[in-house]
Amino acid sequence: MIKLKNVEKKYFARNYELDALKNINLEILKSEFLAIVGKSGSGKSTLIKIIGMLDSEFQGSYEFDNIFIQDQNDNNITVMRRNIGFIFQDFQLINRYSIYKNVELAYVIKYKQTNKQKILKVLCDVGLSDRITSYPDELSGGQKQRVSIARALVTNPKVIIADEPTGALDEKTSTEIMDLLLGINKLGTTIILVTHDNDIAQKASRIVRIVDGEIE
Question: For FRET with 10, which of 45, 46, 87, 97 sits at 20 to 30 Å CA-CA?
Answer without folding.
Answer: 87
